[in-house]
Design a protein that fits this description.
Layout: E1 3-10, H1 16-29, E2 35-42, E3 48-50, H2 63-69, E4 71-78, E5 81-86, E6 93-97, E7 99-102, H3 113-121, H4 130-137, H5 139-148, E8 156-160, H6 161-166, H7 168-175, E9 182-186, E10 196-198, H8 204-211, E11 217-222, E12 227-236, E13 241-249, H9 258-263, E14 266-267, E15 270-271, E16 279-280, H10 287-303, E17 308-317, E18 322-329, H11 337-340, H12 347-366
Helix pairs in contact: 4-5
C-alpha cells in the first residue's frame, strides 16, 4: 500500500506564489510508485483546499476559478488517523493522510505556524519543528544565537518600528555606528522581499520607512563590498548533517533580488523558481574555504536545531578573505534540489530521504514523555465547589 503524503503549500504570505512553485516541483518529482501525493493548498484567505487540479501550475492563473473546482477541507486527527474532510455539504472525508510535507515559505506558515498546528494534531511531518522554524524565520533571533555560538556574522543593529517612530534620532545614531553602505531587511521575511540598500545617511530614512511596510522588526547590516555569495544545503537532524555541493550565486543587482530569484526565471512563460537562478556549481572557491563553509553549514544547522533540508547562505569578503554566515532557510525555495544533483542525489531520492527522516524523527519524538496519564484534578470537588465563583 502506498504511503499518503499531504503536500501543504501556499498560505497568507508575501511568498505565497513562491511556495506554489516549490510544491509543484516537488510533487512532480516524488516517486509515485511509493507515494500517493495529495496536494493541500492554503489560500491567501487561509482556507484549505485539495484536489488533483492543484498539481498543475497553469491552474493558478485564476485563483477564484481554482477554488470553485477544488474541495474546501479541514485537516484533523480522529482516533490517531488524519483526515481531510469537506467543509461543505455532507462533511464527507475526502482523503486520509499518513504524513504531512510542508513546502511553505514566509511569515504565517514557515515560521512555526504550520509546524505548531501539525504538532497539535499529532501528525508526522517533514522538516524542522516549531523551534527550529521560529529561529530560522526571524533574522534577529537567528543572529543572536549565532553571536552566542561565535558563528561569524557581519555587524548589525536591529529595532522595532515603534522605537523608530518614537525616538528616530537615537535609532539613527545607533545605525551610524555601522559603516555604509548598509542593507535593510524585514526581520521575518524571505525571498529578498522588502530589502533596501543605502549608501549614505541621506537615503536612510526613506529606506527604513519602506522596509517597515513589511515587518515591525528591522535588521540593518553592513554590506560586504567585494563579495562572493555562496550557498550550501544541509540534510539531516540534530544527530547527523550531510552537506550538498556549494553554489556561487550570480546577481545582476547589488544583492540577489526577488526579481533575480523568481520573476526573471521563466522558460516558455513559466516560472522556474530558485532552480533557475544564475549560479556557478561548484562555487569557484579554494579548498580551504570550501572546508570552512561545509563545517559552518553543519554547525549552523545543528545549533539552530533544524531538520530535513535547509540552505545556509554565506557571504565571502574577498578583500579580507573572510567567510560570514548570512542566514538559514529552513524550507528553501525548490528545496535546494539543484545543489544535491551534482553529488549524485537526484530530486526523487532527496524527497524520499526527507520523508524517511521525518518518520524517524516522529518515532523518536513519540518515545519522549509529553503527557501524564494521571489526572491531578480527579479528586477536585468539581463545578459544585466553585458555584458562585464563576459568576
Amino acid at each position: 500500500m502506498k504511503m499518503k503524503i499531504g503536500v501543504i503549500f501556499g498560505g497568507q504570505s508575501v511568498e505565497h506564489e513562491v511556495s506554489i512553485i516549490s510544491a509543484i516541483q516537488a510533487m512532480k518529482a516524488m516517486d509515485e510508485d511509493k507515494y500517493e501525493i495529495i496536494p493541500i493548498y492554503i489560500t491567501k484567505e487561509r482556507e484549505w483546499y485539495t484536489g488533483n487540479l492543484l498539481k498543475n501550475i497553469d491552474n493558478y492563473s485564476d485563483l477564484d476559478n481554482l477554488k470553485r473546482y477544488a474541495k474546501n477541507v479541514v485537516l484533523y486527527n480522529k482516533e490517531g488517523k488524519f483526515y481531510l474532510q469537506n467543509k461543505k455539504g455532507l462533511k464527507l472525508i475526502i482523503e486520509e493522510i499518513d504524513i504531512a510535507f510542508p513546502i511553505v515559505h514566509g511569515v504565517n506558515v514557515e515560521d512555526g505556524t504550520i509546524q505548531g498546528y501539525l504538532d497539535l494534531i499529532g501528525i508526522p511531518y517533514v522538516g524542522s519543528d516549531i523551534y527550529g522554524s521560529v529561529v530560522g524565520q526571524d533574522k534577529v533571533f537567528m543572529k543572536q544565537i549565532f553571536e552566542s555560538a561565535k558563528i561569524p556574522i557581519t555587524k548589525y543593529v536591529w529595532f522595532f518600528d515603534f522605537e523608530y517612530k518614537e525616538n528616530k534620532e537615537d535609532i539613527i545614531s545607533k545605525i551610524e555606528k555601522l559603516n555604509f553602505p548598509l542593507i535593510l531587511k524585514p526581520a521575518k521575511l524571505g525571498s529578498s522581499v522588502g530589502i533596501n540598500r543605502v549608501s549614505n545617511k541621506e537615503d536612510l530614512e526613506e529606506a527604513i520607512l519602506d522596509t517597515m511596510q513589511y515587518d515591525s522588526k528591522i535588521v540593518i547590516e553592513e554590506v560586504v563590498e567585494d563579495l562572493i555569495e555562496v550557498n550550501c544545503s544541509v540534510l539531516g537532524n540534530y544527530e547527523y548533517q550531510e552537506t550538498s555541493e556549494i553554489e556561487e550565486v550570480m546577481s545582476n543587482d547589488e544583492f540577489l533580488t526577488y526579481q533575480d530569484k523568481y520573476l526573471g526565471n521563466t522558460k516558455n512563460g513559466k516560472m522556474k523558481g530558485m532552480a533557475a537562478t544564475n549560479r556557478v556549481i561548484p562555487a569557484r572557491i579554494e579548498d580551504k574555504q570550501r572546508k570552512e563553509i561545509i563545517e559552518l553549514a553543519q554547525e549552523t544547522f545543528k545549533i539552530l536545531n533544524t531538520a530535513g533540508v535547509s540552505r545556509i547562505d554565506f557571504l565571502i569578503d574577498k578583500n579580507k578573505n573572510k567567510v560570514y554566515v548570512n542566514e538559514i532557510n529552513t524550507i528553501p525555495g525548490s528545496l535546494s534540489f539543484y545543489l544535491w544533483d551534482p553529488i549524485g542525489k537526484n530530486y526523487t531520492v532527496l524527497l524520499d530521504e526527507l520523508i524517511s527522516l521525518a518518520i524517524k524523527n516522529y518515532k523518536n519524538k513519540r518515545r519522549l514523555i509529553t503527557s501524564f496519564d494521571t489526572n491531578i484534578l480527579q479528586n477536585h470537588s468539581g463545578i459544585k465547589g466553585v458555584k458562585g465563583k464563576l459568576n
